[in-house]
Amino acid sequence: MTKATIMDLGMLVKQTEIRLSKEMNRFASQYDLTGTQMSIIDFLGRHSDQQVSQKAIENELGIQRSTATIILQRMEKRALVKRTPDPQDRRHRTVKLTTTAKQLFPIVKRHIDQ
């Protein structure tokens, strides 16, 4: 593969990422959510049988701790998630969906799967 081909491929991947992000935000807006919030609902919903840490969300979405904290605080204010101190390490928090977000999960999952 030539250097030009790799650069073209990289550009296509970036353009695809931008389009997917715009589409996700467009769909999410009808539920008064952002695409990232939808991704968090999807991740937590798919791991509902496990204790999920904020760190796991950060790693899954590739976002910084400060960004995750702000997003999760906003979701908590809207009663979409509940954050609790991790019983084994109180410096960390576990995150789970509330009943409201659990009702959104099938809609979010269907959209993401498509």
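Above is the first protein from milestone M3; the second protein from the same milestone is given next.
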Amino acid sequence: MEQRRTRRFQLQLPLSVTRSGAAQVELAGRTRNISSSGVLFTTEREPDFGGPIEYVITLTRDAAQVVNLRCLGKIVRADRVDPGRDEASPAYRIAATLERYEFVRQI
């Protein structure tokens, strides 16, 4: 039985990678699960493994207010996955730490 330090929540939320290593990027993805120490997400391209990463998770998308969680961490695992029949499916599963975060509201 697998033992984890923190509980993981199975949440499928929009995510965007804004910085990978020293490079500013625009990379869309979707979370698979989230814990207080990290996130597992899928995306079409592989960010720099082992380097710092900045990503934004969209928590709410209602018309009145958008709430984002801006996170800083590093990539600890990157697995290529079979996209299956749908070629538009994400090709990578990325595990990243969650070392610092801040809530960002857009009006």
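Note on the second protein: The CA atoms of residues 40 and 95 lie 4 Å apart.
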